[in-house]
Amino acid sequence: MERRIFSKVSSKGRVTLPVAIRKRLGLQPPDTVEFAIVNDQIVLRPASFTVQSLRGIVPPLPNRETTDFDDLIEEAMEGAADRIACVPSVPLTN
After folding, report:
1. Counting Cβ atoms within 10 Å, is residue 22 exposed (0-12), middle (13-18) or buried (19+)?
2. Closest to 22 (Cα-Cα) out of 7, 36, 9
3. Which segments of the chain have a pLDDT < 70?
4. Cα distance between residue 12 and residue 82, in whole Å
5. SS3 32
6. What are phi and psi of 41, to 5 degrees?
7. Are the C-beta atoms of 33 and 27 separated by less than 8 Å?
């Protein structure tokens, strides 16, 4: 059974989500929603975020150099390899 709920679009393009829809989707302030157009219909759902989608949402700290995580990982791996190479081998005993 299809349940229809109507809401008006304001002059600024805003629509109030009816309580029944907010409850059904578990939405509360300040949640974000995602709109998708599928076969000429609008689909509204709670937004799901990935690390990739959040990239750049927070500006870098002022007066600080930004760092590439791939470079940090590579440096850490090189440092670990250097430490392992310097550890004397211990003979295994039975």
Report:
1. middle
2. 7
3. 50-53, 64, 66-67, 87-94
4. 61
5. coil
6. -125, 150
7. yes
The SS3 of residue 24 is helix
The 3-class SS string of 36-90 reads EEECCEEEEEECCCCHHHHCCCCCCCCCCCCCCHHHHHHHHHHHHHHHHHHCCCC
In this structure, is the dihedral angle defined by the CA atoms of residues 14, 20, 26 and 29, taken in order, positive or negative?
Answer: positive
Q: How many residues would you count in the chain?
A: 94
Q: Map tokens 């940090």 to a residue.
A: 72
* Model pLDDT for residues 66-75, shown as the tens digit of each residue: 667 777 788 8
